[in-house]
Specification:
Length: 467
């Protein structure tokens, strides 16, 4: 009934919406050190203040929960729908070509910049959906609350704080994935392990290794220093390993020897098969060099045995599994430091509904212990599933179908969203199926028309669920 009005409103406010997204995306809101009143640092604080001032400017009642979370309410009716988005981002990283990470630009119908897709663009699209309903005077009896968090990328402690004082709404969606509806999220084992060994002075040797920026990012770059290996051997081995893996290697003098940089391709840890893991590529490379046998190199070989390059399903470590609803288990070896006498690392495994601590956690722990490596985890995050036939999910699918003309269906993801622990929470939008928006990678973008379409769909959903 209000579909045409909503469409006309969004088209008329398209540029304004893009401008608001750009305003937020110019703020580097990655998690920084705590300071008083700013639980996740200066950047997330600035982004939250900016977003709340926007919402207030558009006439919404706002609340700030101690700078962990901010909310905007459509009306003072009974709570019915929460829209859960976030303003924090992953680090900018390297390799950007279209623009600088915090200088958003529109090019060829795409809005480039860190946060445009994850999740500032979708957050603003949701705000504009509420704005359309409000400014068009569409009657809605029940309340919609836009919840803006600031720690989604680093553990969602913000939302835990929020739900300490607020109840969850009867229905919640998070526009932090893709359409149609994601009603199943895999469980997760964020493995942290370490090992210690006797140092060795024997040459040639590995001096140190460093790789990874965050546990949920497949490392696109990894770095090591070796001593006592001639340049010819380094380069010859690099050619062989590059041919095998697609990982490239470059060399420069470094403190303590020759620095080696492995260059691959970053990806989100929930889809490790879409990247080229520079860390596992570098481990493979190091084991091909004629380095002296020692406890450190034995440990490096053990890691490569457990997490070989190209194994993104946990085959080697003995946890490969799959089910019909949630698909196959994935595993990304994402962080590692190696020194003369110890190593410390992390991997990120997304586990289907059939996974549990017996068939995943205990299996990995035993396999690592056999190699002299200690896995420190004692628990894992269970999977999440909402009935796809519920009236809530069916309403979301209908709105998507009517607006796009595409068939809607329930999907599963390895990515964890804010709704993972909410009884009736699903992910809904804001990118269209099959769009690789380079989330967490260089040149992240959102398709402008998809953001506008998302806002239209969200507005329609608000009307259907809250009218």
């Amino acid at each position: 009934m209000y579909k045409e009005k909503i469409e006309a409103y969004m088209e008329a406010h398209k540029q304004e919406m893009i401008d608001d997204i750009c305003t937020l995306c110019r703020i580097n809101s990655e998690k920084m050190a705590y300071s008083e009143g700013k639980p996740f640092g200066e950047g997330t604080f600035a982004a939250l203040q900016m977003a709340l001032s926007m919402a207030e400017r558009y006439g919404f009642s706002i609340t700030n929960y101690d700078n962990y979370v901010g909310t905007a309410d459509l009306n003072d009716g009974e709570r019915q729908l929460d829209i859960l988005a976030h303003l924090d981002i992953v680090p900018a990283g390297e390799g950007w070509t279209v623009t600088e990470p915090f200088e958003p630009v529109v090019k060829d119908g795409k809005l480039y910049g860190r946060g445009t897709a994850d999740d500032k663009g979708p957050a603003v699209a949701a705000l504009y959906a509420m704005r359309a309903v409000k400014e068009l005077g569409i009657p809605v009896k029940k309340n919609v609350r836009l919840i803006l968090g600031t720690d989604e990328e680093c553990g969602s402690s913000d939302i835990a704080e929020y739900y300490e004082v607020e109840k969850e709404a009867p229905m919640t969606f998070s526009p932090d994935a893709e359409f149609p509806v994601i009603n199943t999220e895999k469980g997760r084992l964020e493995g942290h392990f370490s090992a210690e060994f006797a140092p060795s002075e024997a040459l040639p040797r590995l001096v140190k290794l460093e790789a990874g920026i965050k546990v949920n990012v497949v490392p696109g770059k990894a770095w090591a220093v070796v001593e006592g290996v001639d340049t010819d051997t380094l380069e010859r081995t690099a050619k062989e390993v590059e041919k095998e893996t697609g990982i490239s290697f470059s060399f420069e003098q470094a403190e303590g020897g020759m620095g080696i940089t492995a260059q691959g391709e970053g990806a989100h840890a929930s889809t490790p098969q879409e990247g080229k893991n520079a860390l596992t590529g570098l481990l493979l490379y190091l084991t091909r060099l004629p380095l002296a046998d020692c406890p450190q190199m034995k440990a490096v070989r053990s890691l490569l045995k457990l997490f070989p390059h190209g194994d993104t399903q946990g085959m080697a470590v003995g946890i490969h599994m799959a089910d019909e609803i949630s698909g196959a288990l994935t595993l990304a070896f994402s962080m590692l430091t190696v020194s003369a006498d110890s190593l410390d690392g992390m991997f990120d495994s997304r586990c289907p509904i059939c996974a549990n601590e017996d068939n995943v956690l205990k299996v990995v722990k035993a396999a690592m212990a056999e190699e002299g490596i200690t896995l420190h985890n004692d628990s894992m995050t269970p999977p999440h599933h909402v009935d796809g036939n519920s009236p809530f999910v069916q309403t979301l699918l209908k709105a998507y179908e009517e607006d796009t003309g595409q068939k809607g269906s329930c999907q599963s993801t390895g990515g964890g969203t804010y709704v993972h622990n909410l009884k009736n929470g699903v992910a809904f939008g804001a990118s269209m199926p099959g769009t690789d928006n380079r989330m967490h990678g260089a040149d992240e973008f959102a398709v402008v028309e998809d953001l506008v379409t998302s806002a239209k769909i969200f507005a329609q959903v608000i009307v259907e669920l809250c009218g």
